[in-house]
Amino acid sequence: MLFRSIMGLSPVIMSGLMNLRAAASGIMGKDIFKLFTAVSFGVVNSLNSVVAQGTIVGGGPGSGSARIYGLIPIVLQGIIMAQLGAVSIIGEKTMDIASAMAFGICNHVMTSGTIMTICIGSFTPPPVGPVTLPAASGFGRLV
Question: I want to staple 115 with a disulfide (CB 3.0 to 4.6 A). Which of 34, 46, 66, 143 is the partner?
Answer without folding.
Answer: 66
